[in-house]
Write the structure tokens for this entry.
Amino acid sequence: MKKMRQSWKGVMSPRVRFNNQMHYLPFDRTVNMEFGYWSDNYETWSFFADNGIKNEKQADDFFSFEPPESVGGHYWLNPGFQYQVLSETNDKIISINSDGLINEAPKDGHSTIPRCIKSSVETPDDWKKVKKEKFLRDDPVRKPDVGALTAKFPADRDFPVGVNVGSMIGKTRDLLTLEGLSYAVADYPGMVEDMVETQCALVEDYLDAVLPHVQFDFASGWEDICCKNGPLISMDFFINAVVPRYKRIGEKLRSYGIDIWYTDCDGDVRPLLPYFLESGINCLFPYEVNSCAHPAELLGEYGKELRIMGGFDKMKMIEGKESIKKYMESIVPIVERGGYIPFCDHRCPPDVTAENYLYYLDLKKEMFGWIK
């Protein structure tokens, strides 16, 4: 594949650079990574369309980005629900997805969040059936191939690798829907806590199998349980049911020397942050600025206890070059200090012009591609 950008120069290996930058130690330049794009970008940006770039992996290669790899187990439904189109009109399709949700989506396939009509799990009896059929701990698919992992990720490798520890409550929301989760926490709290416990146990099984054999540099997870106005879940339930599971996972990670743990959570995470840190989740990703705050604000408040990955305001990228440069200048102190890897604060939308995006990439290299 023809590359549009070459790898940034450096005097450290990618693994040393990532670990030093995340641990507030000296590093030669920032890790050069991005968090992908809306599907529309692959069609509307000519440098993607003309070069056959159709997904994030191809885009990373095209731009010579260096995102750290993360591997994990099968912590979710197996088998998933079978996708099926239930009905359609001239412009809408109603279907059931792999999580058992009946959704309405535009027929033309443009990027949008589908409207959920109904969940397949609404009562404890529904959950009991799904758990028995699709969350078996002894399911062979959940057993990792430790030999393949040790061969692929030897202890003396020069690139960082993380272990994915799944989701305690974000995927539960996917299964129940946001509205369904809100009702279930009130009506069936025991059911929801059992969902969290089931996922936690599957993660623990995987960690017990792989941690003695593979030396990981960090842990990653996914939650997406916040919106621009804060958490999408009861704080009482989060503190009493979710945080104890985080702590169990955190103890396992720390026992094997893994002390960097990021979770992918959009929206305003500030109400959850003290509990994240208490549990061992000490890095925010991809850190949406407009629903939260400038990354310097939280890094200033929590000091070196916190790390952030992301946090470059996508709205400034939409506004144009002057705004891009001004924002890039505003993050200079926190990039130089460490504990912060800058990239677009979620997947880059098609509202950002191709010209502005290339300017952003070039400016980031100019300002943070230094070698010390």
Notes: The mean pLDDT is 96.
